[in-house]
């Protein structure tokens, strides 16, 4: 069982919606969660209730431009450039430090690419060194073959971005590619908070981050103690192979890579949901055994 609380996190000029899943038993570890494109934290309730039942406290927030952090139509997808996105995430992680139990960071899809970008940036070395482990659920390191945009579309978008950076553009996700559960796909389609909208600036920044990750130029340093990567091999949104290649190229001694055979993109709401939840719980708890649990406090 767990207690779920909602709140806000103030960062720079934004007030971001937050949600926390707190165990009713002693806290053994903490996880900071970063969601993906056209996504929000309340789609992760089922998995994070499982984690909380095992003594893992989870902190999530709706990123700038997404979910309940959107206060007006012009906010949709208005993430700002990569520097703003990463600063927001770093500030949220930092707000959970220092900690009496190990802290982990987990990013899904776009959020996975973002946390890699943060973890590899020398600017955040001190912060990264305080995180016990980094976890990537179907990280966006490259497009799946079905989703690769044309070169012309990318060029035209970048050109327009220089003139109208906050111009909003729809990039509709095919919900049938996210999960093998029809009722969940229907829920994504009908959820007004999954608005499929980005600004030209935000989309261009996303493409730039992804290109850097896929090029192999982004390397995680010695401050990254542990890495877990999980990806479905039938993911039609983000490239499974790009994620495997990235993981293979990281020189990290404590590294676990898990393929979910037949798995789609959103493992947390796919048919393998329970397996995924148990996998990440076990991985976290195995790396939290040396520290004494603390009493849960809301």
From TrEMBL:
Which domain of life, per UniProt? Eukaryota
Q: Which residues form the Serine aminopeptidase S33 domain?
A: 27-270
SUPFAM superfamilies in the record? alpha/beta-Hydrolases (SSF53474)
Signal peptide (from-to): none
Q: Coiled coil: which residue ranges?
A: none
Query: Which InterPro entries does this entry report, sorted A to Z?
Result: AB_hydrolase_fold, Hydrolase_4, MAG_DAG_Lipase
Q: Which one Pfam family would you cite for this protein?
A: Hydrolase_4
Query: How is this protein named in the record?
Result: Serine aminopeptidase S33 domain-containing protein
What is the taxonomic lineage of the source species? Eukaryota, Fungi, Dikarya, Ascomycota, Pezizomycotina
């Amino acid at each position: 069982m767990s207690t779920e609380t909602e709140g806000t996190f103030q960062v720079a000029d934004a007030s971001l919606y937050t949600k926390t899943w707190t165990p009713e038993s002693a806290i053994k570890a903490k996880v900071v969660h970063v969601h993906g494109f056209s996504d929000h934290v309340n789609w992760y309730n089922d998995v994070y209730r499982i984690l909380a039942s095992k003594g893992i406290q989870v902190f999530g927030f709706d990123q700038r431009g997404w979910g309940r952090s959107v206060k007006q139509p012009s906010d949709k997808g208005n993430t700002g450039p990569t520097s703003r996105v990463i600063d927001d995430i770093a500030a949220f992680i930092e707000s959970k430090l220092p900690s009496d139990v190990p802290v982990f960071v987990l990013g899904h899809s776009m959020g996975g690419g973002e946390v890699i970008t943060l973890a590899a940036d020398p600017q955040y070395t001190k912060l990264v060194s305080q995180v016990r482990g980094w976890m990537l659920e179907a990280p966006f390191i490259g497009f799946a073959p079905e989703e690769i945009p044309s070169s012309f579309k990318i060029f035209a978008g970048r050109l327009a971005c220089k003139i109208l950076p906050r111009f909003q553009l729809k990039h509709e996700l095919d919900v049938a590619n996210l999960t093998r559960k029809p009722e969940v796909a229907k829920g994504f389609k009908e959820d007004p908070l999954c608005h499929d909208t980005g600004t030209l600036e935000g989309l261009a920044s996303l493409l730039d981050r992804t290109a850097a990750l896929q090029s192999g130029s982004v390397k995680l340093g010695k401050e990254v103690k542990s890495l877990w990567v999980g990806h479905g091999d039938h993911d039609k949104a983000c490239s499974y192979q790009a994620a495997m290649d990235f993981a293979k190229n990281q020189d990290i001694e404590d590294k676990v890579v898990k393929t979910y055979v037949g798995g789609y993109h959103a493992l947390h709401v796919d048919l393998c949901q329970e397996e995924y939840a148990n996998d990440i719980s076990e991985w976290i708890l195995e790396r939290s055994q040396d520290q004494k649990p603390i009493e849960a406090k809301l």
